Inverse folding.
């Protein structure tokens, strides 16, 4: 459920009409619903009730400071994967003890930053990283709490670019090697082993791969405990999928997922962490765009809109499906016709969808892409010198720009001309 509904024939974000935002900020823009973000966080939090737990929002899905501030205010933890994300977490008010640091390539500078600023745990992904972290912590006179990310070799049955739990993926250490690596970690002076981490992929629409992975983690917990390790925390990653195509998909709910967590690892008495990103932010956001032209082609028509692949890359990158709604609700009985919806960027890949059944639309009308709150704005670029588009947050009847659209001058003046070229003209 989200908070984007038609009221008297116009699409609203909570109690704000989308055309009102468009008139204020111009198109295209992203708009997020505070109520949906809050609701999604609470669904996870409640799903894990009865077990000690922390829901660590994976900020890579949407790292706008206002979204982070809202999550921090709800008591969430946060999963970061770079020094930049760590700095965002601190700036949004997350205390160090609620920040988890994941990622395969943490640098010494990032380790120092987190050790000095405060950290709940590092999710370590390789032996060289483990050795480097121990050295940095020792040099700083600190001890780094760690879990080790294991790769359970399960097929997440999702898009190949976002599956992470097969042995051929770059993530974690092979689960078969875990005993050896934990034994190595236990004797490194700068580390304190506290648990196990696993994350098998994103946009999972079936619970079975989670079940396989978590059962393996449960077994490993017992084995490592028998080896003398203190395994008191399990980080079970993110990955629960959302219904991108509402008419024909219904992925499992956080409550079902929570029941699965209890069933597979609940008996171990560990503190549970999860790292959802997409399910919290995805359906809390729309991308709103205006129709520039309707072009009648040879055998097919094109709806050319002012958003493009640089604003929302998911369709071009993963062939992702997004529901696209007219902002003014079509009258009942309006006939739909197939049309390709494309952006202005000079690549055929700048196609959001082909032959989508849409009501008739004309220049100046607005359309809204659903499920654009996660991996939308954060993956945007300025390709074709199209400035990053604004982000807006709605709270009941209020809305605020939470990232302004840069001016063209701001975009151009970020570049600098070397002296020798300056003189050459
Ligand atoms: N934890 C770790 C270690 C991760 O790598 C990820 C996502 C998450 C948590 C959050 O997963 P989520 O709950 O959002 O599925 N750009 C792609 C998705 C990439 C996901 C990368 N890792 C997309 O647009 O579909």
């Amino acid at each position: 459920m989200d908070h984007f509904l038609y009221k008297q024939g116009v699409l609203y974000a909570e109690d704000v009409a989308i055309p009102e935002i468009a008139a204020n900020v111009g198109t295209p823009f992203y708009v997020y619903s505070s109520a949906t973000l809050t609701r999604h966080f609470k669904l996870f939090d409640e799903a894990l009730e009865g077990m000690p737990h922390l829901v660590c929002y994976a900020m890579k899905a949407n790292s706008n400071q206002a979204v982070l501030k809202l999550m921090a205010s709800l008591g969430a933890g946060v999963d970061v994967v770079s020094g930049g994300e760590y700095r965002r977490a601190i700036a949004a008010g997350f205390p160090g003890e609620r920040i988890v640091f994941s990622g395969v390539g943490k640098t010494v500078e990032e380790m120092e930053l987190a050790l000095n600023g405060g950290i709940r745990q590092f999710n370590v992904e390789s032996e060289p990283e483990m050795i480097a972290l121990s050295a940095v912590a020792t040099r700083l006179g600190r001890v780094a709490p760690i879990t080790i990310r294991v790769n359970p070799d399960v097929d997440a049955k999702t898009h190949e670019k976002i599956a992470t739990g097969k042995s051929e993926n770059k993530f974690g250490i092979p689960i078969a090697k875990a005993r050896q690596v934990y034994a190595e970690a236990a004797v490194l002076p700068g580390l304190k082993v506290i648990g196990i981490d696993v994350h098998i992929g994103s946009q999972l629409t079936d619970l079975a791969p989670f079940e396989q992975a978590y059962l393996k983690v449960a077994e490993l917990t017992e084995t490592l405990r028998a080896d003398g390790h203190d395994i008191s925390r399990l980080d079970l990653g993110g990955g629960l999928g959302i219904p991108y195509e509402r008419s024909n998909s219904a992925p499992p709910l956080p409550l079902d997922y929570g029941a699965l967590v209890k069933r597979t690892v609940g008996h171990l008495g560990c503190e549970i962490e999860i790292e959802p990103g997409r399910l919290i932010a995805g359906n809390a956001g729309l991308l709103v765009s205006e129709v520039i032209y309707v072009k009648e082609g040879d055998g097919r028509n094109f709806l050319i809109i002012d958003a493009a692949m640089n604003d929302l890359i998911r369709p071009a990158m993963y062939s992702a499906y997004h529901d696209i709604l007219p902002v003014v609700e079509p009258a009942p009985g309006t006939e739909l016709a197939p049309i390709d919806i494309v952006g202005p960027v000079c690549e055929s890949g700048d196609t959001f969808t082909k032959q989508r059944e849409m009501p008739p639309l004309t220049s100046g009308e607005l359309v809204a892409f659903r499920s654009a709150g996660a991996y939308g704005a954060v993956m945007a670029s300025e390709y074709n010198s199209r400035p990053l588009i604004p982000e807006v947050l709605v709270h009941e009847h209020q809305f605020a720009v939470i990232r302004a659209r840069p001016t063209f001058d701001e975009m151009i003046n970020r570049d600098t001309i070397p002296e020798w070229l300056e003189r050459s003209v």
